[in-house]
Amino acid sequence: xxxALGLAKPRAPRRPAARRSNFELYSWLFMRISGMALVVLVxxxxxxxxxxxxxxxRINFGFVAGRWASPFWQMWDLAMLWLAQIHGGNGLRTVINxxxxxxxxxxxxxxxxxxxxxxxxxxxxxxIFTFDPNITD
Amino acid sequence: MAxxxxxxxxxxxxxxxxxxRGDLGMWSWVAHRITGVLTFFFLFAHVIDTALVRVSPQTYxxxxxxxxxxxxxxxxxxxxxxxxxxxxxxxxxxxxxxxEKGPRFQRAMLWTTLAVWVVVMVPGAYFMxxxxxxDLFGGK
Lengths: 137, 140
Known about the structure:
Chain A is an all-alpha fold. Helices cover 69% and strands 0% of the residues of chain A. In chain B, helix 2 crosses helix 4 (70-98) and helix 4 (70-98) packs antiparallel against helix 5.
């Protein structure tokens, strides 16, 4: 009835009842929805930071302070941080599922991935909300 | 129009003809993966370097100086190229998935993606490297 992968053959007389979760469907949909938002957020970010008047050469603490004085750019960066981490993390989850051969390897690589996602999202969110332009005063 | 038909492929693969030998679409898939993973790893470093604004202006400024180094500047151009390909090919994937004519035009859309990539990257590279090149060779 089932093969080594635990999948029922398509024409098997009795296939398992309905799948318990639509997680992979929602993750597929999320990649497309977040992808559309990220096209605007990330390409906009790259254009401003790397190309617009002087690009990376004009970036310093004062430049960051000027941008984060505006709630608009704070929200832009916050949305970009969350969406990019979850979009990229979900992509890497797929890559790990595809290439990890042993269950233990797959498990630990995913734990490492999830820990790094939580770390980066928390750190980034913390920095955006607690940024202090007068930190040295 | 569209992709190579089954008959064109028939007999071209060794060992029974069931081996998937890939096509342009496979390479766009490979490139999408590589550019995606690359960008995700960069993001890890980038959020941490930006977080240094919470340490002190001097710490942040000294680390941001690294980005202005000619070699890192060139790597940054590579990153922009990777992200741009990923974005354009991502739009193509969405059109293949959601547009009724998408699958029929997938190959044409891949060439469009590459053409747009070149058209954006040429002026993009100019503006990103302008300062570095003039510092290195401008003799100022």
